[in-house]
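Q: I have 108 residues here and want to know how they pack in 3D. Can you give me a structure?
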Amino acid sequence: MPEASASVHMDHPDFRVRGKIFATLQYPDKDWGMVKLSPEQQQELVQDHPLVFVPVKGGWGRRGATSVRLAKADAATLRRTIAAAWRRTAPKALAAQFEDREANGYRS
């Protein structure tokens, strides 16, 4: 994913695009991660994979922040979900470049 970088926020590893967090690891503990999705994306994933995805509590969860039980997630679903979180967070022009690369068979 173009311009993705790893950092740390509140003692947890996170992943950002142009300084904005789109995913974190180890919150609330090492078995979990979090992705920033749309509420609609979150609803679909929670419905389709209830043992993997859980809305974050409170306002963050109502806006699409979604906890991921990492050990229960298969690699393909996790990759698609992280890509969706990146696209939602990235500037539109950058996200369009990623879409073009993916359509042409490149992996970022």
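Q: Anything worth noting?
A: The radius of gyration is 13 Å. The mean pLDDT is 91.
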